[in-house]
Design a protein that fits this description.
7-stranded mixed β-sheet, 901 residues, alpha/beta, 30 helices, single chain, 4-stranded antiparallel β-sheet
């Protein structure tokens, strides 16, 4: 059977993935005879398609799972998708609009029919794409966070936590997303640096005439102060600085610090809201900073968290002037129906025309934005459902602090600690239809009961109200759904049906899972909450290790995104470079917790590695065997065997410490440098000459071991070569071959050290060939002044072969017309007489020496200039000194070369 000259990934990847699935290699079940190894996939959004972050995350998961499978463990990788309430509802609403259908014209049931139809059509795309990457998930276990069993688990947990008094309903200031028209948790809000404007507005003081005498002295004391303070002292107006002039219609007070002498005359006074004219009181509170802005703070309890707390403290009314979509409602009186930002533009114009705008300052600020829609968040008072977190957070912090759950890298423990020590109650309700509907049922009198089903709710409602005539039609279920994270925090338990059947074989065997691979951006969103849920409902941690990947960025350090257009399509990369090339390319520079600066050269390097491996296989497979030949490569085989075993130990250590990128580089160097560049060259027979059977047998064995070590990283090409090497049994796949174990070899350290010395000699000869323009195969001789002649004797065949030498001898004096190099305590000489034109070489070296000396002298002259040294930047002076040192070293080397000739 002929072997293809080049490796073509497209010809083999689909073939092997199908065969792995047909053989059932990815399927897992509770098996008491084997050690379990389980991983749950961070469920991608059902709306999602594969992006570079998914590629990195799932490659790492697959590497861990494939290695565990080869170690003989019952490896179970559970796939699935997240229903992604906000993102999916937005997609479905947009799709319906294209069809001329508005959400408001549909019943909840009708909308959900459309949403599930969309999910069935598009929801599985990303899982199919993961198969192209090589993800070895147990696809029979695929779960969806809104499937009936998982929905029931979510509702059971809600009911349980409510019964425990941990879930409550209340009016709180929440993060409101006007675009998706729902509340968000603090963790779903992303701060964004912006340049904002501060508007200084004049509020007329009511009854200013009676206050004139009280301000006379203050005006005199205020002379020489800045404009904002002078304007604040005006007896008829109080100047207030705000970044949100469109909310002045919701003002209920202006607060000043009671210790601020500028405003003593306003204690107990009232002011009028510009344009609107409504009177509001001036209140006193030390919360107000005297030094910020004008020292006068407009209080708008409905639209700012701090203002809300001031309002509660001073028993102020609340005026909410915004609709759900961020437009102004009737309570605003002005600009009704306008979007908040349009209203801002218009009110600034009107304030200026009316003489109420004193000035506008620009300043650096931070606005809060929705993680999903990118809309600017609106702080808003809203009746929502909350989960008390303090009870759940304490044990979840402890297990990370004591390394029961290990974070990799450990630096994220500090981030985790800060979050958990400052945890706030979790707003778990969302004003959407796509998601698990909150199992709270309202009675006609406005009270409510919480129950798993409507039937159970009716029983509770009759008991609570004492009205046995109540019917299901009398109850109204809460319209809101639960936060998507309220389902995904149960994921490690619910995927094994641990709520439906808490003692089933799967959950008892596979829980807790072993490793979780995810991003640090959801360390609290998801990881911390899963730990809380695991400890609350299984009394066990959900996983033992958390591997935190970095963010994939472009070469400029920007996060890859469709909006920026800087993210390649992962599937296009797979078509161009092969899945193995993309997998290794992503991992080459992806240490845990550090961002990956993506460069297409990385995946090119991955593809080149595949080609290197393929060519090594073709080379060995093409050798003819002569059974009569004796074993002739003992030293090479001993060395590579020792090197292989040392590398296996190093590789295992990297895996144990979750240094996945280092693990790949270790096996990469073993294959590329040690096996291909050194070992195969040592044993390779002369052109068209045969090889001895023992060398070929051992080399094939080495190659098989290398394929096993590479398989978790490069599953497709390793499986292809594995089956091309020799006939295999029906279940004999590298996918399930035993992971190699390091075998102790007597004297391994000495073997490696002595071969390293021999290869250093080869490297020295090769350097001289490059420097002198001698071809790699031009016959040369080597003479050595050494105290270790035994090394030359033991490794003579290897040194001669790799360095293309016709003779290696030991001398006491340097041969004439030779060039030398030193390794260790030995000096080696390569005679060049007859190899090159000595006269021409002397002339060339002389010119190089003359140039180097001239360059050195120019640098010396510059450094001798005291003015330059005194005035130039220190790093510039240091660079000049480094140039001098480099020039001196080059001059010395050239003089030695000339002396040798």
């Amino acid at each position: 059977m002929s072997i293809a000259k080049t490796y073509t990934p497209a010809d083999v990847e689909a073939k092997w993935y199908q065969r792995w699935q047909e053989q059932g290699f990815f399927k897992a079940k509770a098996n008491p005879r084997k050690q379990p190894y389980s991983v749950v996939i961070p469920p991608p959004n059902v709306t999602g398609v594969l992006h570079m972050g998914h590629m990195l995350n799932n490659t790492i998961q697959d590497v861990l799972v494939r290695r565990a499978r080869m170690q003989g463990k019952e490896a179970c990788w559970v796939p699935g998708t997240d229903h992604a309430s906000i993102a999916t509802e937005a997609k479905v609403v947009a799709l319906l609009k294209e069809q001329g259908i508005e959400k408001k014209d549909l019943t909840r049931e009708q909308f959900l029919e459309h949403a599930f139809a969309w999910k069935e059509k598009y929801g599985g795309i990303i899982l199919e794409q993961l198969k192209q990457l090589g993800a070895s998930c147990d696809w029979d276990r695929t779960r969806f966070t809104m499937e009936p069993e998982l929905t029931e688990a979510v509702l059971r947990v809600f009911v349980d936590l409510h019964q425990k008094g941990l879930i409550y309903r209340g009016i709180r200031m929440v993060n409101w997303d006007p675009q998706s028209q729902t509340a968000l948790s603090d963790e779903e809000v992303i701060p964004k640096d912006v340049m904002a404007k501060m508007y200084h507005l004049r509020y007329e003081v009511v009854g200013a005439e009676s206050l004139d005498g009280r301000t006379e002295n203050l005006e005199t004391e205020g002379e020489g102060q800045n404009d904002s303070k002078l304007s604040a002292l005006n007896s008829q107006f109080l100047t207030v600085a705000t970044s949100r002039p469109e909310t002045i219609m919701a003002d209920v007070a202006v607060a000043v610090n009671p210790n601020d002498p500028r405003y003593t005359h306003l204690h107990g006074a009232k002011v009028r809201i510009p344009l609107l004219g409504r009177e509001i009181p001036v209140i006193l509170d030390e919360y107000v900073s005297i030094d910020f802005g004008t020292g006068a703070l407009k209080v708008t309890p409905a639209h700012d968290l701090n203002d809300y707390e001031l309002g509660v403290k001073h028993n102020l009314p609340v005026i909410d002037i915004l609709n759900n979509d961020g437009s102004l409602n009737e309570k605003a009186v002005l600009y009704v129906g306008q979007d908040r930002f349009a209203a801002r533009r218009n009110i600034v114009k009107d304030l200026e025309e009316a003489g109420h705008l004193v000035k506008v300052d620009e300043y650096a600020s931070i606005v809060q934005t929705s993680e999903r829609t990118k809309a600017v968040i609106e702080p808003r008072l809203s009746l929502q459902w909350f989960l008390k977190m303090e009870h759940l957070a304490k044990p979840a912090l402890e297990v990370v602090e004591n390394d029961t759950v290990k974070l990799h890298p450990a630096k994220f423990k500090n981030t985790y600690r800060v979050w958990m020590e400052n945890v706030r109650d979790w707003c778990i309700s969302r004003q959407l239809w796509w998601g698990q509907q909150i199992p709270a049922y309202y009675l006609p009198d406005g009270t409510y009961v919480v129950a798993l089903t409507a039937e159970e709710a009716l029983v509770q409602a009759r008991e609570q109200s004492g009205n046995q005539d109540l019917q299901l039609t009398d109850l109204r279920q809460d319209e809101d759904v639960l936060d998507t994270w309220f389902s995904s925090w149960l994921w490690p338990i619910s995927v094994f049906d641990g709520f439906k059947d808490p003692d089933n074989a799967d959950v008892n065997y596979f829980y807790p899972t072993n490793d979780l691979v995810t991003g640090p951006d959801i360390l609290f969103f998801w990881v911390a909450r899963m730990i809380m849920a695991g400890l609350e409902y299984r009394k066990e941690i959900p996983f033992r290790n958390v591997y935190l990947t970095g963010i994939v960025r472009d070469s400029q350090g920007r996060k890859m995104s469709k909006q920026l257009g800087n993210s390649p399509d992962p599937l296009d990369l797979i078509k161009q470079f092969g899945a193995d090339g993309v997998r290794t390319g992503m991992l080459f520079s992806a240490p845990a917790g550090n961002d990956l600066l993506y460069d297409e050269k990385l995946v090119e390097q991955g593809r080149n590695f595949s080609n290197k491996l393929w060519n090594a296989f073709r080379l060995t497979k093409g050798w003819e065997v002569d059974a009569a030949l004796p074993f002739a490569n003992e030293k090479a085989v001993e060395w590579f065997s020792a090197k292989l075993n040392a590398t296996i130990s190093e590789l295992d250590e990297h895996f144990e410490k979750f240094r996945i990128s280092d693990a790949l580089m270790t096996v990469y160097k073993l294959v590329w440098d040690d096996f291909c560049s050194e070992y195969l060259e040592m044993i390779k027979p002369a052109y068209q000459a045969p090889i001895d059977p023992e060398t070929l047998r051992l080399t094939t064995g080495f190659l098989e071991t290398l394929l096993k070590l590479l398989h978790p990283f490069m599953p497709f090409i390793t499986e292809e070569i594995w089956h091309e090497l020799k006939e295999r049994g029906p279940k004999e796949y590298v996918c399930v071959a035993a992971w190699p174990k390091a075998q102790p070899i007597a004297g391994a350290a000495d073997l490696l050290a002595r071969m390293e010395k021999a290869l250093a000699i080869v490297g020295g000869v090769r350097t001289i060939r490059n420097q002198k323009g001698l071809g790699p195969n031009k016959p040369l001789t080597l003479a050595a002044k050494t105290d270790d002649p035994q090394l030359l004797q033991d490794y003579d065949p290897i040194i001669r072969k790799l360095a293309a030498l016709t003779d290696v001898s030991v001398v006491t004096e340097a041969p004439a017309a030779s060039v030398s190099f030193v390794t260790g305590s030995s000096e080696f000489f390569v005679p060049l007489e007859g190899q090159i034109d000595l006269g021409a070489e002397k002339e060339r070296l002389g010119k190089e020496l003359e140039y180097a000396q001239g360059f050195r002298d120019s640098v010396l002259k510059k450094l001798a200039n005291e003015k330059f040294v005194a005035n130039a930047k220190p790093d510039l002076v240091e660079r000049e000194r480094q140039k001098l040192a480099d020039a001196e070293a080059k001059i010395t080397a050239l003089e030695q070369s000339l002396a040798a000739l």
